[in-house]
Amino acid sequence: MPIDTADLPEPEELPDDPEDLPPENLNPGWLSQDELAFVRSRLPIVYVEAVPVRVDGLGQVTEVGLLLRGTPEGEMTRALVAGRVRYGESLRDALFRHLETDLGPMAFPQIPASPVPAQVAEYFPMPGMSPYNDERQHAVSLVYVVPVTGSCSPRQDALEVSWMPPADALAPGTLAELAGGRGRLLRQALSTVGC
Amino acid sequence: MPIDTADLPEPEELPDDPEDLPPENLNPGWLSQDELAFVRSRLPIVYVEAVPVRVDGLGQVTEVGLLLRGTPEGEMTRALVAGRVRYGESLRDALFRHLETDLGPMAFPQIPASPVPAQVAEYFPMPGMSPYNDERQHAVSLVYVVPVTGSCSPRQDALEVSWMPPADALAPGTLAELAGGRGRLLRQALSTVGC
Amino acid sequence: MPIDTADLPEPEELPDDPEDLPPENLNPGWLSQDELAFVRSRLPIVYVEAVPVRVDGLGQVTEVGLLLRGTPEGEMTRALVAGRVRYGESLRDALFRHLETDLGPMAFPQIPASPVPAQVAEYFPMPGMSPYNDERQHAVSLVYVVPVTGSCSPRQDALEVSWMPPADALAPGTLAELAGGRGRLLRQALSTVGC
Amino acid sequence: MPIDTADLPEPEELPDDPEDLPPENLNPGWLSQDELAFVRSRLPIVYVEAVPVRVDGLGQVTEVGLLLRGTPEGEMTRALVAGRVRYGESLRDALFRHLETDLGPMAFPQIPASPVPAQVAEYFPMPGMSPYNDERQHAVSLVYVVPVTGSCSPRQDALEVSWMPPADALAPGTLAELAGGRGRLLRQALSTVGC
Lengths: 195, 195, 195, 195
What we know:
The structure is a homotetramer.
Chain A: H1 33-40, E1 45-55, E2 61-70, E3 76-79, E4 81-84, H2 91-103, E5 119-124, E6 132-133, E7 139-147, E8 160-164, H3 166-169, H4 172-176, H5 182-192
Parallel strand pairs in A: 1-7, 5-6
Antiparallel strand pairs in A: 1-2, 1-4, 2-3, 2-8, 5-7
């Protein structure tokens, strides 16, 4: 199965015209395809992931947002907001950047005041080392539950953000639609907010 | 010293005209003075406490709010938002009620999505059992860091809410102005948000 | 069914010969049946609950312990270690006391260094206020995951401590055997340890 | 001062006879000096840090362990247990490996059951981006409080593990002896265990 990860592709991975790439020499956090392939085979990569939620006036989670997108094979899969942390970028900046990329500029996420994540997920390319799997890399992912207060309009390649009550997000059928073990991760993240 | 607690008096403790008291038979959570004295000598009492903070667009704490009020002796002391949880009242409701009482109705607090507190403080009337002391009672207090987004206008008996950068709130001089060990508690609560 | 709670009865609730009761005047934390009935109708009661686990040398949970006991109706139900915190008793002391009562004196529990619980559960006697229900009282319960290193021999009225892999403890059938919403609570507590 | 970090040098950084190096082709997690220099300039590096503590029978922290070592300049500095997570290595394995390296094989650390760290520290080589600074790299460090139950005998280049009561570890003079902002980090980590 060529698509084993639930997060959206990052710009570095898109088959782009090199002219469209940001000037690499300006930002050491940008990696060429070769460099990315090298580091992915030698080092754990730092990721952030976010479970977008809506809360009521007392902070209680009322809805959970899941990204829905089509794979190149035409399958629909669900995904969390997720992406790499760049060199020189803070976790908060990375979280905000990926939320904006995946939910649009009007989502108005409330990044948690605490840097301690709701859960830590370790993705390995080799099966069996952990409940979480990512063919591309060994990633250490800090997972946050993030209330969003605005309206979400995902960029084109995510077809939809679907909102559902926590009980629906926790239904076995929904959890199974998240790839790479992220159903379990979603369940763990929602547990921290009492769901 | 007759005032050993930093939280503001609750309505039950005020020397009130009984006519002003809410109808007790309507809400079993209201206790008469005698009842309160009895339960305080026999049971740990559930409290919530809140450290109000202001955060920037990335969730980073920029300011910490502390209540400043005069004691009957004319001393100024600093306090956290704090109060008892009533029978039949959820922790979220109690947190919201005490935030509204102490910060006014326009504070717009963002109650955290997680019910797990930043810290748990155990107050004992007997000295030496814990770093936290409350002459009146044995209290188990769940402490939350709560971002507020509106404007704060405390009720009359709290003279002021003063806002200060986290480094000032953590200065030994400030921490020492919180009674009953709450300086230590403030330090612990702010630690959870990276301060 | 008159017994809807999963925790084991506390000594105060047992239909005992009064001579067997501890001398109440020596410990204000002891309550007579009448006093307990009064406070349970007027105040939230502080509880601690524990999920006993076994861990490997790297701290990974390998087994989860659940109490199995018969109700007066002859039904078998599963329960967590649980009980009330007494006046003047620290949370750690209460946790240790209830672990010893339910698992025996040779369980050697490792009480967590952090007083912050894995989860907070609010039990209400009125249905619908929370996922957790306790006919007897409004209880605020601090829930901990506690590794035990010794051997467990529960007191007589708990027929058994059964140990199972985390996946079995999380199976819907097992979770449904915990009363009062504690299946959900067990799932949340195990989520914090990556299960 | 060329050495501004409190963690002990890793084997990769030691000026070694190449013969002494582990066979790099057997473990992709090993990096040559050039490779390490490259990745450190392009990616955040995953670290684990540990605050070793001793606890009493109720889990209360009684002592805090700090590494004491001499710099090449002859200064004494205090340090936490710290080190890089290798490719393909779990956080638990990395934590155990660094604890064993720094505290010896008889320390018998109790790695926490929860993978969620007590705190997350972001080290940047550029000053001002964070309270934590590491000249060598951008590191994202997951910090745990780890009870140890055995006896500690650090390897040669750490002269001593010194144990002290939590109040002494939190004294401003002690915190100031930890480089790169780790005094603040120690304070935050100890806050999570009620100190």
